[in-house]
Every structure is written in structure tokens, then in C-alpha cells.
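Just scan my protein:

. . .
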Amino acid sequence: MKVLFVCTGNTCRSPMAAALFNAYARKFGFDRAKSAGICAQDGKTSEFAIEALRRAGLRARRKKAKQVDEALLKSVDATVTMTKAQAYALRDMCPDLDNIFSFSDIAGVDIPDPYGGGEEEYFACCDALKTLMPKIYDHLKKRA
């Protein structure tokens, strides 16, 4: 199963979510999750996001932000956004797709954006993603 995580700029939440999902789901036969952003610019993964992943025990490196588009959405089996608003935006972009979900749809909570915050906001975001990842995995596994 091919999974895409989407946030706003693809520099904080979605790269962390993809890395955490990959670590969690690797042993269960999922393809490596990807990440993208609704408003991705020329940015790269935040240093604080990289440090939060390292603190969570994962090897991480900076990557260039990727803009989500219709072709990318159609190339995956499921897309998971950080917020309900992001899921609505992607559903508007591809109304024929029924595989776009938000963390709120699956786990009952949006993932706040740590962008502009300090190290502690990134650590808290990473911890929340890590805690909720089993729910995301279980939901996607049922759809596989």
C-alpha cells in the first residue's frame, strides 16, 4: 500500500509523520510512505523536525519540500492530512478520490503546526504523531 502524508509546507509535520509511519509499518509490508505539502515552497525539512525524529530514535535527513498535486494524489492508495481543512482542500482538488483522510477523521484530533515555534513544539508534535501512528496504521491496514 502506498501512503502519502500531507501538511501545509512539507517541512515539519508530514515529513515527521512519514518517517514515523515508515518505522512503524516497515515490518508489515507497506511501501515507504511519502510526504508533500499543500503550499510547499523551496523549503527543506526543518532542523527541529530532524532533531525531533532523532530524539524519537529515527535516522532522519533534510529533504526538499514537495508540492502535492493531482497526479501525486492519484498515485497513492491513501492520503493522510494533518488537519480536516487540509483534507477538504485535497478532496476539492480530486473529488473523485475516496482515499483522503485527516488525522481528525481517524484519530479524532488535528495535528497542530509547530512551524515558527521552538524545539519543544516540534518535540511535542513528533510525540503526538508517534502516539497516534498505530491508529493511522490500523485504519490503513483495514483498507488494504
